[in-house]
Amino acid sequence: MSGNLPWPKRELKIGDVSKLACLPVKTIRFYCDQKLIQPVGRSESKYRIFDECVIEELALIKTLKVMDFGLVDIKSILESRRSGFCTCSYLKGTIKSKINSVDEKIKELQQVQGQLLSLIGNWRNCGGIKANPEASSVFVEPYTKASPEELLV
């Protein structure tokens, strides 16, 4: 028997984990290779064997990936979680850093949105007639007036 449980922990092959976690086997192998999750051993046939705890860890990985955390951060979060020590300050710092990253992405996307709105606002319908190749294009004109520094923003 294992731990305080009245029954032994169930050992799961990678295919079982795949079904329970709703992830492809290939993804689970990748997470193993990246050291995000670890099998508890191998079967006689050399299949990876996992305990049931891996399902919860895979759920956390999926949640963190949806939140756009990178594998390095996910690995650190999992290691902190497994350590058994409170790492609140580290985790809060990681989350605050992610919030700052999201704020930056929002600003960048708002700039892109502004450029797209400007483009559509300056749109000139051609009426289905092929444009004169010498005439300025709605796509090029705003950028030919900009300095190289403005284009890199």
Commentary on this structure:
There is one protein chain. The chain is mostly helical and 153 residues long. Helix content is 56%, strand content 6%. It contains 7 helices and 3 strands, in the order E-H-H-E-E-H-H-H-H-H. It has a 3-stranded antiparallel beta sheet. It is elongated and about 75 Å long. It starts with 10 loop residues before the first strand and ends with a helix.
Summarize this, please?
The chain is mainly alpha-helical. The chain is built from 7 helices and 3 strands; from the N terminus they run E-H-H-E-E-H-H-H-H-H.
| Percent range of helical residues | 55-70%
Largest beta sheet: what is the strand line-up?
1-3-2
Task: Report strand %.
Answer: 5-15%
Roughly how many Å apart are the termini?
Answer: 62 Å
Count of distinct strands: 3
List keywords for this structure.
three-stranded antiparallel sheet, 7 helices, mainly alpha, 153 residues, single chain
Q: Can you lay out the helices and strands and say which pair or pack?
A:
Layout: E1 11-13, H1 14-21, H2 25-33, E2 41-42, E3 48-51, H3 53-66, H4 71-83, H5 88-121, H6 141-144, H7 148-151
Antiparallel strand pairs: 1-3, 2-3
